[in-house]
Amino acid sequence: MHAFFKHFALTLRGHKILTLIVFAGLTLLSGFFTLHSRVDNSLSVWQSADDPHWLQYQKFVAQYHIIDPLIAYLPGLGLLELEETADALKEHTRAASFHTLSIQSLTGTEAGLFFILPKAESSPADLAALLTEVEHVLQQQDATYHLGGVWYLTTMLDTLSAKTTQTLFPMVLAILTLGVVILVRNRRNVLLVLLCGFTPALQVTGIMALAGVKLNMILLALPPCTMILGIAHAIHLVLKQPDEEHPDSISIFSEVAAPSLLSGLTIMLGFFSLVFSSYLPIQQLGIWGTVASALSLVNPLVLLALFFEPAPCRSITIPDTLVTFMARHRLALTGIFLLLSVLAAVGISRLNTGSLILDFFKENAVVRQNYQQIENAGLGLTPFEVDLSGSTINNGDLQAVFTDFAHDNPVITQMLYYFADGTVISDSTANGARFPKLLSLSKMEKRPERATVLLKTLASEPTLALSENLELVLQQRLGPQEQPYVTGSVPLYCRGQQQLFSSLLTSFANAFFPISLVMGVALRSVHFAILAIIPNLMPVFFIMALMGWLGIPLSVATVTVASIVFGIVVDDTIHFLHRLQAETRTPGTAMEHLHNTIHYAGPAMLTAALISGTGFLGFLGSPFIPLRDFGLLISVALWLAILCDMVLLPLLILSWKK
Known about the structure:
By secondary structure, this protein is of the alpha+beta class. The protein is 63% helix and 8% strand. It has helices spanning 2-14, 16-34, 52-64, 79-92, 124-140, 150-184, 187-210, 222-238, 249-272, 280-307, 322-328, 330-349, 366-376, 395-408, 460-477, 489-523, 526-550, 561-584, 590-615, 625-657, and strands at residues 70-75, 97-104, 110-117, 146-148, 382-387, 412-418, 424-428, 450-455, 486-487. The strands form two sheets. Strands 7-6-8-5-9 form a five-stranded antiparallel sheet. It has a four-stranded antiparallel sheet with strand order 2-3-1-4. β2 and β3 form a beta hairpin. The protein is elongated, with a radius of gyration of 29 Å.
């Protein structure tokens, strides 16, 4: 392997200009397509094409021509102002249609309510444009207004996540640059390290944009993950100094490239295991995670083979007595890890899955204030759609079913019943605002073809539980049928989150065994493969426990932290064990081998963790809560990973070699 990488570096240096032209061309092309990258968290992103619930919803939408509306609530608006505002909205917006109501809120005051329907098949960009137009009209009318609705939330989510990502990534990059400059010092190698991180992150974003893949809250984690891995690969090399065994840059490169290749292939295998998931978003993470980890490996190998020259750097000093200290206090340190494991188990027991989507925004965010104002007035903004085409009971009994269910669930505010001729009958609960009621469901001769149940916004887990409970009640009281009664965008979102958690965690759990097997085969040691399992698992275990203690839920925005932690700890573990394997071939005791390994591989591992971990603290300034939590968790996870590799792994080795 050393001979291969020596030949590889010499070949690239022999064709430096051609290699640079190809490399620069591909990178510039990726950068161009990165400018066209878009964020999309709409409903279809979280659904698998063959999911029966998704297929049923699509059929339901097509049959009844359902479009989620933008809801505009205007407190204190009289009938005259309501008509003027409606005329202005019709004239100055691209909405397909409007429904206007004068309602009575829970406080007894009159208010105007608009259901603004976008055109069918509107793209996220079209919805964002419609939202801007509506706000402009309402501001021109000098009206107090509050907006809500399903696609309003997703549009605001896309806008905020894209904006904060664009503004905060430069700040994170600046912090990373400062860390590299301080610790690497040599300008040539500083630039190399930054290019090894920034270039693959740029490339994977551009390739996804070229392939028509829009970023969502899962895929948004890939560029920073790619940047971390690329920087880690580079730092492992640039901090190495010449010695008798490796007197020049080519020999140093060939020594470090082998474990870098092994760690890169192992991380690729971990991501590739996700491709076999039955859930489409996880499949996408598997595909593009594999591409990202490949780019984070190839870029450093090419750039460092071309340009690396050893230079003095400010390497982190590891005490000479560290291994002796760990050996002398082995039991105490092991006890500390066991105590931390117990505390971690308690933390994981406190970990919540799912989240309230409003918690993605700060407490004083306009989105949260809008939702609070509308729902406090007695209008639920979370809709459950109910298909009544198979129901045969009379309207009086049907109304009793929904009334009884609403009585048992105070979060429900209204039920809306829709008829084939376009008639809509509203029925408000004790907790809902009063809608105009000209007709009574029980007195209608025709049966409604569908209904909408409106409820106040809850976290994803209780929302899904409520929809499943409603389904159970309807199956019992309306009559059993194979096709579910309850559908809608919100239950699908919640079900998608549930699938995301179970599929991702199961896939990564299944990936640990083949990865450990590959590590064992590559390192030619079953013992090393077994030893690698625990320090690879523990950082993920600890970070999930920290989420439990801090009250950060395992949501669609934070679940990807496990994959990034996994990639980093695997990289460090392989570099550590690869060096230890080389040391065991030389004369000496286990203590001496471990001492030499820590002082050879440790400074680069610590430097990479310090630079990357500090850099991602820049996300703490984000107004977008998932991105803020992401930055905090990644930073802590990087430090936990290095703790496990620099302390726990040596303790295991000392116990094994005892």
